Amino acid sequence: MIDAKHIEALKTFVGNENVYHDKAHMIAYSYDATRERYEPDAVVFPRDEADVSAILRYCNEHRISIVPRGAGSGFTGGALPAKGGIVLALEKHMNKILEIDMDNMVAVVQPGVINMDLQKAVEAKGLFYPPDPASQEYSTIGGNVSENAGGMRAAKYGITKDYVMAIRAVRPGGDIIRAGKKTIKDVAGYNIAGILIASEGTLAVITEITLKLIAKPKLKKTAMGIFPSVERAMEAVYKTMASGVTPVAMEFLDNLTIRAVEEKFHKGLPTEAGAILITDVDGNLPEEIDYQMEVIERVFMENGCMEFKKARNEEESADLWFARRNASQSITIYGSKKINEDITVPRSVLPELLRRIDDVALRYKVKVPCFGHTGDGNVHTNVMVDGSDPKQLEIGHKAIEEIFRITVELGGTLSGEHGIGLSKAPFMHLAFTEEEMNLFRDIKRAFDPNNILNPGKMAL
Amino acid sequence: MIDAKHIEALKTFVGNENVYHDKAHMIAYSYDATRERYEPDAVVFPRDEADVSAILRYCNEHRISIVPRGAGSGFTGGALPAKGGIVLALEKHMNKILEIDMDNMVAVVQPGVINMDLQKAVEAKGLFYPPDPASQEYSTIGGNVSENAGGMRAAKYGITKDYVMAIRAVRPGGDIIRAGKKTIKDVAGYNIAGILIASEGTLAVITEITLKLIAKPKLKKTAMGIFPSVERAMEAVYKTMASGVTPVAMEFLDNLTIRAVEEKFHKGLPTEAGAILITDVDGNLPEEIDYQMEVIERVFMENGCMEFKKARNEEESADLWFARRNASQSITIYGSKKINEDITVPRSVLPELLRRIDDVALRYKVKVPCFGHTGDGNVHTNVMVDGSDPKQLEIGHKAIEEIFRITVELGGTLSGEHGIGLSKAPFMHLAFTEEEMNLFRDIKRAFDPNNILNPGKMAL
Question: FAD-binding PCMH-type domain: which residues (chains A, B) (predicted)?
């Protein structure tokens, strides 16, 4: 796809030192968190928007595929060059926080800025950028926007899209587009920023992002509720959310997950419990914190909670969070291969969803530990199998497909925050009609008529 | 454009009683709040989504223009059939609240539901739908979504788009599209709901909307600050918003507006004041209310506030709000014709914006009273002229164009909440490059290749 002439052309745009096509670099840029591998034909490091524009114009003319990449920490292969071509690596040069505007409570960043670096920079000024995907220590804002990343705080503070005010991006032909403003209200023209969010780099390459910031709440408190069954815990979740208080986080672990963490870390967790809920509330006044905790405790108790533990300090809070933070790594005791999905349903059907996942696990004879962000209906569902056994793998994938079907039947979505990418592309037909897929194709064609941007993603 | 054969075809879809083409109805559906007039060739009242689909399929085949219409209360001609064709009137049959889902805090409505009817229905259940455009007593949710309506509470609670979780819509060819879910997180497929919001009925006809609801705060309190100058008031606005507390509303009136209301209603308003700010805070606890009021009072006082009045009860609150609520009708004392725009800038440049509007008013020798939603940078700018004097009208329009230029120069937008429609279409080139307009055209073509949906709007 790419020959020496193309490599030379790319070097004239960005300089020799910013184009690689040696084997070592091709391997280094061939993977993401899915552990699948696709080697690109070249890796290019644009220095600025003008570079991105020049590269896209050239690649569009020569029909060369371009895959934008941040940290490569995605769970669905969004940054993998499935059809070869160029990986456009934005983390090397385009990683500056351009502005933290205190007066308007806005940050302007390049796509390669790491989420946690932004959080720290704004918190140093008393401001707050809430979206906190589990990958926050290494994932980039560009990647977060492209997948519309969620996180623990979404129940109260929403997700990445709720903070994107404006985007600058480059279309395949090289045109630079400014979408949105540093204003809360803006209804002039189509909502281009809105459609670029979660578009997985298939429509344009994002070169600058303007993010809304909020004031950092002064106080926070953690509590944990222990429940006899998943059903009762799930009822407590949606009834809490409907009570009028909105906790920052409302995370859950099922019995399999609790037992896995306990087996690995011996923390004295309640291994007989059906489920644990861990919740954070925040605010500026002690009275607000107390009020929210009282309401949550009451709703939990009304829904079968056996024990309600409130952290008295930061240390106790970290203790309560320990099980949740170590859930993902602990469940590997159930199988060497984890087929993990991030299905999301309306909160009120969480009890039914978990019941039916349990039923799938029984029928397929696989363990399916679940945990996650139940405050917004987002459940991390992990089908654990022996990765060296092809039969087990097949069973695992069948179980996952059935869980997807159940999710869609319950009014839920294939992905709450990880995206579609390559991993979930085969399941898009479960969630969308042919007419809906046609609309996606029409939009893709409108932005990228030659299909050079991240081809093959999202079943397009 | 439409002949007897077309009328007969439409009647077979929706029944004789739901198709009008008599003069009286054509006049009744020829206007909106702009007072401009364009008569359609027919008015059709679809009974349901299947009707909308049949009508669109037929009109697409026969290249007949379709203009979706809610209450016709828009300020920019969005619902006017500028190129003739059919007005698709959604307020008659498709006006049901389909569901208020207490467990998931979601409402599902048809597009013709009136904003205030929805607010009342959800408040009766202890829930809250915050977007409150000034037209809330008659404008429809479908119209609100199509223009992305704002309102008084946007500073704290955001605008219509922040509450849209899912949309069902029909494409010109008749295809029915479901976009979004009853879930906070959903990243499967492109954000179709996102791009339909504010698209002014140019991409698809919305047939059902799923809206996020929140818990209704229990307490509210109002205060007013009197300032020596607009500049000091504007500084107080953005410094309050950056202080960490977020008032529900932060409304402003300039001296011309204050004097107009006083002249009309004799309420004892401070006619020597440069500006008034009126603010509401809300919460669930008295301590929260007091804390917010203390911070606002402090910031106001630090920025030259001459008097800070706190309402002690509902009656005093209504008193403080009186001037703002009657601003729009009062300023007509300055001229029979009001050329009003809803420009929006980043809050920190509000002082400069108002200074420069003042300068425009002096140079063109017109009065330009301003008031509005300064908490989100949205200023209602009213160039007042004698409507019977063509010369005055011309001057007025030149002044407005200059104000648009200043707004864009300051990083602002042509429209915060009214939309582009017909009225602002001539100014789109001030805000967007040709490349950006081309992207809008590409998107329009992707959704509506035959350009039958609301043609001529948004400069498309």
Answer: 36-216
In this predicted structure, the answer to whether residue B451 has a pLDDT above a threshold of 80 is: yes
pLDDT tens for residues B69-97? 999 999 999 999 999 999 999 999 999 99
Q: For the domain with range B97-215, which CATH number is right: 3.90.1150.10, 2.60.40.1930, 3.30.465.10, 3.40.50.450? A: 3.30.465.10
The closest CB to that of A285, out of B191, B291, B376, belongs to B291
SS3 state of residue B443:
helix
Q: What residues 273-312 of chain A have any CB closer than 8 A to a CB of chain B?
A: 283-285, 287-288, 291
In sequence order, the β-bridge partners of residue A278 are A224, A251
CB < 8 Å from A in window 187-226 of B:
187-192, 194-195, 197-199, 203, 214-216
ipTM of the complex: 0.95
Q: Select the residue from A163, A181, A184 to test the B interface by mutation, using most B Cβ atoms within 10 A.
A: A184
pLDDT digits (tens, 9 = 90+) for B330-370: 999 999 999 999 999 999 999 999 999 999 999 999 999 99
At a CB cut-off of 8 Å and minimum separation 6, what does A65 contact? A1, A59, A81, A83, A84, A85, A86, A452, A453, A454, A455
Instruction: Kindly state the tokens that stand for A251.
Output: 């995370």
CATH class of B4-92: alpha beta
Q: Where are the domains of chain A?
A: 4-92, 101-215, 219-329, 335-428
CATH of domain A101-215: 3.30.465.10
| Cβ of residue B99 closer than 8 Å to a chain A Cβ | no
- Closest Cα partner for A244 from B217, B280, B165? B217
Mutation site for B-interface testing, chosen from A153, A161, A185 by largest number of B Cβ within 10 Å = A185
* CATH tag, B335-428: 3.30.70.2740
- Asked if B190 lies within 8 A of A438 by C-beta distance, the reply is no
Q: What is the mean pLDDT of residues A230-240?
A: 93
- CA dist B37 and B31 (Å) reads 5
Determine whether the interchain pair B377/A184 forms a contact, defined as Cβ–Cβ distance below 8 Å. yes
Same fold, A101-215 and A219-329: no
